[in-house]
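Supplementary Text 2. Reproducibility record for the structural model of the 351-residue chain.

All settings were left at their defaults, and a single model was retained for analysis rather than an ensemble. We include the record here because the model underlies the residue-level annotations in Supplementary Table 4.
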Amino acid sequence: IGLYEEILLKDFVTRTSLDLKLTLKYYREHATMGTAGGIYHLRDIIMRGNPELLFVMHCDICTDFPLEEMLQFHRSKGDQAKLTMLSVKARPGKAHTYGCAVADESSMVLHYVEKPKSFISDDINCGIYLMSASIVDVFRTLFLRNSDAGILEPEEMWIERDVVPELIASSSLYLYKSSVFWTQIKSAAAAIYANGHYLSVLRKENPKALAANGAGSPVIVGDVLIDPSATVDPTAKLGPNVTIGPGVHVKEGARVKDSIILNNSLLGPHSCVLHSVVGWDSILGEWSRVEGKELVINKNDPTTHEPTRPLFNEKGLLEPSTTVLGEGVNVASNMIVLNSIVLPHKDITSN
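Retained model, structure tokens:
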């Protein structure tokens, strides 16, 4: 459910439905309805078939999704639990940038504040909820209350702002505390960080899916994922933390590290891509260099999330970060692109 036009997600929905052999549908909101309002607006569709429970997940997160564990925890609380919220520990001093919850020994939430100005708790909201079907009754109560109050958009309701206080008042909100990997994806740097985690998961669960060194293969360092439709010259060097998308061409002597190369891009001979995201259908000329700032994070610390930094500093200058090339960008030969965000369909002919 979201505000994006259907055409933007059509290919993703179709491809993912086929790959995972499940029915995946996207519904567009006609206006901003909030995390609860969209569900209430589509309640007849969502509740078709009388589901017992609903998983609701924000789309801008990366985690190991302990859904089975959440399901067992939620059911162990019986009918009293209307919503279970996934929580992890925040990095020291960073809890105030998230929603923070305080729970008792039974894990029932007693207090919740979204982005508090002072310390409340280091148990933060991960944006993954397991709801009993009866949650729709809470949404209906909120909607009727908004209508009676004359609110212009009574269907605009938020789980964090509107629903959580109602559930705390009725002692029906529970916190499932976990130590799984979790981070938000609100920047290109976070995407690189998340990419590295998912590649490490592949290393443990399906190592054959990752590229390996061998005769006629490029030099592989660490975890590298290459789409079968991509072509990579044997003299290229890839990794660690690299994903090469469908239809990508990587020419001789190219070097890629800590980067994501999206569909149908071309990396010319001896080009270099470090700490960057290269957009669809982009072309890098020979000996060109695209480089961003290295992300320094302790990957062995589950409480370490990619920090959210402002895009620009107080002087209006772009903060050094991951370099991003938009769709269809052409970087001329021998050019350097450093710590930059390049809009789609631009030609880079100077450093």
